[in-house]
Design brief:
The structure holds two protein chains of two kinds. Chain A is built from four helices and no strands. Chain A is mainly α. Chain A has a single domain, classed as Non-ribosomal Peptide Synthetase Peptidyl Carrier Protein, Chain A, CATH 1.10.1200. Chain B is built from 37 helices and 47 strands. Among the domains of chain B are: 16-186, Chloramphenicol acetyltransferase-like domain (Chloramphenicol Acetyltransferase); 219-368 and 379-438, Chloramphenicol Acetyltransferase; 850-937, ANL, C-terminal domain (GMP Synthetase, Chain A, domain 3); 948-1027, ACP-like (Non-ribosomal Peptide Synthetase Peptidyl Carrier Protein, Chain A, Orthogonal Bundle), CATH 1.10.1200; 1044-1296, Rossmann fold (3-Layer(aba) Sandwich). The relative contact order of chain B is 0.05. The chains are: A mainly alpha, B alpha/beta. Chain A: Residues 1-74 form the Carrier domain.
């Protein structure tokens, strides 16, 4: 089960930051995330069976925005 | 509500401006409205049970959301605007093809037709959605949209949305959020235009691109999109993906960055430049609501990389990743805008080379219960080549896709790049450094090394001496040698060379010894060369025109046992002069062996010492036997020998005839520099085969006498044969043209190319290897390079020279072990070359400081060494400059020391260097300019001022004219009377040009020899003034103006006096386009009869025109009587006539009605030719011969210097012409006469141009405000030349008929 905390940890690992450094509304692009890395995260999270779509994720790159999408998918299952 | 940004309220049905991304595409489509390349399209092949209703609903659901697909764009009101037009929404069309015999083919053909139809954004729906039903379990879903409304990312959004909606319709999930409307993109676009970030982005890119070199791609040519693109797609195998994943893990980089870095390295290998600029496609949507808007946002920005081949691979990859990261941060800035910022506007001015497109997004979405595959049909314009990699973020399902501009690449090129790029990247992924990775695939390497060099051919292992002896005995009576009227049979040549060989043997000459031969071209020279070889020795040719110091150095190095020379030579070498040669004697029975040296030729050496190249019999026998058999030389051939014996081309000229039983025709000394004499020799000597250095061929073709020559073969070598020269050759001369290449170090030539009239190669290749010979184009690591990649040219095979005489160090450096053929050697040419896809080798230039001046190979180091031996000099550098296209000259830059004297330096150099190696100019500098790395900054060296300081200004009129001609030919100003043509940088080819101009200006040509004897302005002017006019200026055809060879020339026919110099002003007014020839009366020469009729005269002139211009359109013009003759010529030339123009000429009945002319008519005619109005002469001028000649002389007319015989000729011709005209009956010319009417003369007269109407299809009259007699004067010429030039140009094109 994907959680907000696991998402935060995954993001942090990929951009070589501590999870605490990533705020919910921080722009992940400013923190060094690019489309390739965003895609990598998405693939990893989709392994749990969610049908996450890159274009939705790409609209807004913040932890909170992403969590909102994931929560909606989790709810729809 | 998921929309994260508030959308500015606006009605999408109201016109909006285009985004920055759209504007560029819109203008491009507007400029090329018929171009369908802007259509993007793809289809999904859906296999399995499809719920047609659910699928149609899904597509239509997507269409309902994707407003961009319903856009309309129009500029009717000025600037282009776009708005939503509901009528254009592309609802799905379902096309049932189940009854078609080949349903898939029918569907594909329908898609192809749709893709090929250009779209007008104002008039046509820009998108289409179709479902082709092929059968119950097979459907093709086709989507097409103009690139203005959607890009690749947008198309992907559409597909995902449909997959989503289809799954939802089947109850297999949620429909998910709808697509976002394009209005957010417009809002963002507007916001960015006003954002200070945009200025920062602009500054970043300007800085990034500062000092970027000119963009080089994978193929030469203009990178401008065509109407279609070539497409290639292939899956990359697991091994490739594994290697990529491993590298990504090792270097901790995403795979797209790694591929970008390696694509850059690949392109750089092909471009041959230190750095490359790729185009990188940025998605332009990350972190923006546009991420869910199907529209066009894709942006291409440059990625400048200079991958260091020697650095660890990780460092190269990391550099590229960093550059990409920086670029992404500024990836919003439009590439089109950056082009404008950098002033890179217009075709051919590029921001980047090949485009790399990295698509690390998920593969196709799942279509419930279906197997789907994607087939891309078009992605928009392709300027050059696009290299795309698609695959999952984990590099699963990786595919390589290539799109290429068919104007630059063909399908085979694309396939070759696909295979090579795949191989290169795969190899690089596992290599420690890029330098360890070959560019060629193993298949390409095998092809280049082996297939192209499969030249094994049996050639007997023998010697020149044995082959020639056999021929001499085979047909002793046949002519072997001709020279200036002397003919030697094979028997006679056998006897004389055998006798001398015996004498040489008696003096100790045998295998291993060298005999110097220093003789002018003559029978003796040929006898000497044969005798040395028959005695078993190697000949060493010496040019006595070379400085004595150089000859002394060569003799010192070669240590010949004997010299065959008419003059003593420096040093101790004993000389056997021709008068002491025996006429009887038996050639030694024991000749040389195949491994003995046949000749030693000295070439320029970079260290300052000439190098003696030793070539063995086996090597030269291979070269000559190849040539004899390949080109089918036989006993009927007559081969011209004109190349100096010190130049290796002479080797085949001398010996090939004797291997073929043909005749060797030896040109008299000096003829090889004189095009007129050469043309005569080729024609009168019935030569079948001749050789030209290309620059000499160019000068030869410029000479009128070369037109219409016919030979079996002409060989070119020694420098680059240009495509332009090849074509010019075939337009003038009927002969096979063959381009040969080879250094002295490999027995004359090692490659050949038929540069035939049908050859369209550009550049002309040096071609393929001769028998038993290998050509290798290798990179720095001695690996073969694939076609299109520049490399170093190496040679292998039986023709390689043995050594540089007495220089084992140089020999070892140049002749290295052949890595591809163990036990054999390989020669490093120092030339740079590349292979064409067909395997032909193209020569590209030198990799070092060797240059070619007039076909002669020159090491700049040798010239510099000669200068450096002059004491009062601190530094000297020599470069070859080409300040005028096609005219390369050596220029020395010297930093003087105390006691420096420019004249002394020049003399010092002249004493040590042959002519061709002597710098044309010496420039003194306080210091040599150097660049930041301390190397000579060649760009900072000033162009030389060729003018010497001393001397006086030209004084007489002739001096002024000659000085002006020197200036024109040499492109300098302020030529003085004492200035020497050759000292000012003139050389023999420019001398030819000068003498052509002298002939035009002075009306006669004293010959090239005269210039060599009288090279200063003062002396040449004196010569031209003193000497009586020779026949040449009064010859039947004189060239008055040299223009563009490709255009039909204008022939101007003499008026009554028989001389056509009067047209000089008109000819100059038609410069520089038009070549103008004057036709003059042959009867000007004493003893030539006036022909019986004007028709016979015209027939004679037509023949003379044919000799100059055998084919194609010619233009005719004549003044007065000349017009009548021109008309009679036009009747004969018929279809070939472009323009027939007359300067106030009238049909013969007008003449018959006039009174017989007075006795003094010839003198009136003479004055008229000189441009005076004979009806308006100064008071007191008597119309007598003496008075008129004196008057002309005073006015400095060249006519005043006509010799007595010519004046008699004029008198005779005027009388003869009067008779001919009065008897003449005009024929009918079906074309048009352009009549320049002397309106001032004939106002109100019955004499009218209309009198020509019965004799021509049409008459166009152009009134000129002048008297009849003034029509060739300056005032009339300015009125005549422009309309004449326009009419000539309009009729040039008839040439195709």
């Amino acid at each position: 089960m994907l959680t907000r905390e696991r998402m935060r940890a995954d993001i942090a690992a990929l951009i070589h930051e501590d999870p605490e450094e990533i705020g919910g509304e921080d722009n992940l692009i400013d923190l060094g995330l690019d489309s390739m890395r965003a895609m990598t995260l998405l693939v990893r999270w989709n392994e749990t069976g969610l049908g996450l779509d890159f274009s939705e994720f790409a609209e807004r790159l913040t932890l909170d925005a992403w969590w909102a999408i994931v929560r909606r998918h989790l709810a729809g299952r | 509500m998921n929309a994260p940004l508030a959308v500015p309220p606006h009605d999408p049905r109201m016109p909006q401006p285009l985004t920055e991304a759209q504007a560029g595409l819109w203008y491009a489509q507007r400029l090329d409205a018929a171009n369908p390349i802007f259509n993007t399209g793809q289809y999904l092949d859906l296999r399995g049970p499809l719920d047609l209703v659910a699928f149609a609903d899904a597509v239509n659901g997507m269409v309902a959301e994707a407003d961009a697909l319903a856009l309309r764009i129009d500029d009717a009101g000025g600037a282009p605007v776009q708005w939503l037009d509901e009528a254009r929404r592309p609802w799905l069309a379902v096309i049932d093809l189940t009854n078609e015999p080949d349903a898939e083919q029918a569907a594909l053909a329908d898609m192809a037709r749709d893709m090929a139809a250009p779209l007008d954004p104002a008039r046509h729906a820009l998108a289409a959605e179709r479902l082709y039903v092929l059968g119950p379990r097979r459907h093709l879903w086709y989507q097409r949209a103009h690139h203005l409304v959607v890009d690749a990312f947008g198309t992907d959004l559409l597909v995902r949305r449909v997959a989503n909606l289809y799954a939802a319709a089947l109850g297999q999930g949620m429909p998910g959020p709808s697509l976002t409307r394009p209005s957010v993109v417009l809002a963002e676009d507007a916001a960015y235009r006003a954002d200070p970030r945009r200025e920062k982005d602009a500054a970043f890119w300007r800085e990034t691109m500062q000092g970027a070199p000119e963009v080089v791609g994978l193929a030469p040519g203009l990178a401008m999109t065509g109407h279609r693109a070539l497409r290639h797609a292939e899956p990359l195998d697991d091994a490739f993906a594994d290697a990529l994943r491993a590298a990504a893990a090792t270097h901790n980089l995403p795979w797209p960055d790694i591929l970008a870095a390696l694509v850059a390295a690949y392109v750089r290998r092909h471009a041959g430049t230190p750095e490359v600029s790729l185009g990188v496609a940025f998605m332009g949507r990350l972190g923006s609501p546009a991420a869910r808007v199907p529209c066009t946002l894709m942006n291409v920005l440059p990625l400048r990389l200079a991958p260091d081949e020697a650095a660890p691979l990780g460092a190269v990859l990391a550099d590229a990743a960093k550059a990409l990261l920086r670029g992404r941060r500024h990836g919003r800035y439009r590439g089109e805008q950056l082009r404008r910022d950098l002033g890179l506007l217009g075709a051919g001015r590029r921001l980047h080379g090949p485009l790399v497109n990295l698509l690390p997004f998920d593969r196709l979405p799942e279509f419930a219960g279906l197997e789907a595959s994607q087939h891309v049909l078009g992605t928009g314009p392709v300027d050059d080549i696009t290299l795309s990699f698609r695959g999952g973020p984990d590099a699963a399902g990786l595919r390589l896709e290539i799109e290429a501009n068919p104007g630059l690449y063909d399908a085979a090129d694309v396939a070759a790049h696909a295979a090579r790029l795949r191989h290169f990247i795969h190899a690089a992924l596992g290599a420690p450094r890029l330098a360890d990775v070959p560019t060629a695939t193993p298949d390409e390497a095998r092809w280049a090394l082996q297939d192209l060099n499969a030249t094994t051919h049996h050639v007997p292992d023998t010697t020149l001496a044995a082959l020639i002896a056999a021929r001499m005995q085979a047909h002793p009576e046949a002519p072997a040698l001709e020279f200036a009227g002397t003919v030697l049979s094979y028997a006679a040549l056998d006897a004389r060379s055998g006798a001398l060989a015996a004498a040489l043997r008696a003096r100790g000459v045998g295998p291993g010894s060298i005999v110097a031969v220093a003789l002018e071209r003559s029978v003796e020279l040929v006898v000497a060369l044969l005798a040395v070889i028959r005695a078993g020795g190697a000949y060493l040719p010496l040019d006595l025109e070379h400085p004595e110091a150089r000859i002394a150095r060569i003799l010192d190095n070669a240590k010949p046992v004997l010299a065959l020379s008419a003059r003593p030579l420096p040093g101790q070498v004993p000389v056997l002069a021709p008068q002491d040669w025996p006429l009887a004697g038996e050639a030694p029975t024991q000749g040389p062996a195949p491994g003995d040296a046949a000749y030693v030729l000295y070439t320029s050496g970079s260290t300052g010492e000439p190098k003696g190249v030793v070539v063995e019999h086996r090597a030269i026998v291979n070269r000559l036997e190849w040539m004899r058999q390949y080109y089918r030389f036989g006993t009927a051939d007559r081969i011209l020998q004109k190349t100096p014996a010190t130049f290796d081309v002479s080797v085949w000229e001398f010996f090939l005839p004797f291997l073929a039983g043909a005749t060797l025709v030896v040109a008299p000394p000096g003829v090889h520099k004189d095009p007129v004499a050469l043309a005569a020799l080729l024609r009168d000597g019935c030569i079948t085969t001749a050789h030209f250095v290309p620059s000499m061929l160019a000068a030869f073709l410029a000479e009128p006498a070369s037109a219409g020559l016919r030979l079996a073969r002409v060989f070119c070598s020694g420098e680059e044969l240009t495509a332009e020269l090849r074509d010019r050759f075939h337009a003038r001369i009927e002969a096979g043209l063959h381009n040969l290449y080879g250094p002295t170090e490999a027995a004359v030539d090692v490659s050949y190319w038929p540069a035939s009239a049908t050859d369209r190669s550009q550049p002309v290749p040096i071609g393929h290897p001769v028998w038993n010979t290998q050509l290798y184009v290798l990179d720095e690591a001695m690996r073969p390079v694939p076609p299109g990649v520049t490399g170093h040219l190496f040679l292998g095979g039986v023709q390689l020279a043995r050594e540089y005489l007495g220089r084992p160090d140089l020999t070892e450096r140049a002749f290295i072990p052949n890595p591809f053929r163990p036990g054999e050697r390989m020669y490093r040419t120092g030339d740079v070359a590349r292979l064409r896809p067909d395997g032909a080798v193209v020569f590209l230039g030198r990799s070092d400081h060797q240059v070619k001046i007039r076909g002669q190979r020159i090491e700049l180091g040798e010239v510099e060494a000669a200068l450096a031996s002059y004491k009062a000099l601190r530094q000297a550098r020599v470069i070859a400059r080409e300040d005028k296209a096609g005219d390369r000259r050596l220029v020395a830059y010297v930093v003087p020391a105390e006691g420096f004297d420019a004249a002394a330096l020049r003399a010092h150099a002249a004493a040590r260097l042959p002519d061709a190696m002597l710098p044309a100019a010496f420039v003194t500098l306080a210091a040599l300019p150097v660049n930041s790395s301390g190397k000579l900054d060649r760009a900072a060296l000033p162009a030389p001022d060729y003018v010497t300081v001393e001397g006086r200004a030209p004084a007489t009129e002739a001096e002024r004219r000659i000085a002006a001609l020197y200036g024109q030919v040499l492109h300098i100003e302020g030529v003085g009377a004492k200035d020497d043509f050759f000292a000012l940088g003139g050389h023999s080819l420019l001398a030819v040009e000068l003498m052509l101009r002298v002939r035009e200006d002075f009306g006669w040509d004293p010959g090239l020899g005269a210039l060599f004897e009288h090279p200063t302005v003062e002396r040449l002017a004196a010569l031209l003034e003193e000497k009586p006019v020779s026949d040449s200026g009064l010859g039947p055809v004189v060239r008055l103006q040299q223009g563009d060879e490709a255009l039909p020339p204008l022939f101007v026919v003499h008026p009554a006096g028989g001389i056509s110099w009067c047209y000089g002003g008109l000819a100059r007014a038609l410069a520089p386009r038009r070549t103008v020839y004057g036709i003059q009366a042959p009867a000007l020469a004493a003893g030539v009869e006036t022909p019986p009729s004007l028709d016979a005269l015209a027939a004679d002139y037509v023949e003379r025109i044919r000799a100059v211009r055998p084919r194609g359109v010619v233009h005719l013009l004549g003044w007065s009587v000349g017009g009548i003759i021109a008309h009679a010529m036009a009747v004969r030339l018929a279809q070939r006539v472009g323009v027939l123009a007359m300067l106030d000429s009238y049909p013969s009945e007008v003449w018959r009605s006039q009174e017989e002319p007075e006795e003094n008519a010839p003198f009136r005619a003479l004055l008229a030719i000189a441009g005076y109005d004979p009806d308006n002469l100064p008071d007191g001028l008597e119309l007598t011969r003496e008075a008129v000649v004196a008057y002309l002389r005073a006015g400095d007319s060249p006519l005043g210097r006509l010799p007595e015989a010519a004046l008699d000729g004029v008198v005779r011709v005027v009388r003869g012409n009067n008779r001919l005209v009065r008897q003449h009956e005009q024929g009918y010319f079906p074309g048009r006469i352009i009549h320049f009417h002397a309106a001032a003369q004939h106002a109100g007269s019955a004499i009218s141009p209309d009198l020509w109407r019965p004799y021509a299809g049409d008459v166009e009259v152009i009134d000129i405000a002048a008297q009849h007699a003034e029509l060739t004067g300056p005032e009339a010429t300015v009125q005549i030349a422009p309309p004449l030039a326009a009419r000539l140009a309009a009729c040039d094109k008839k040439d195709t008929a």
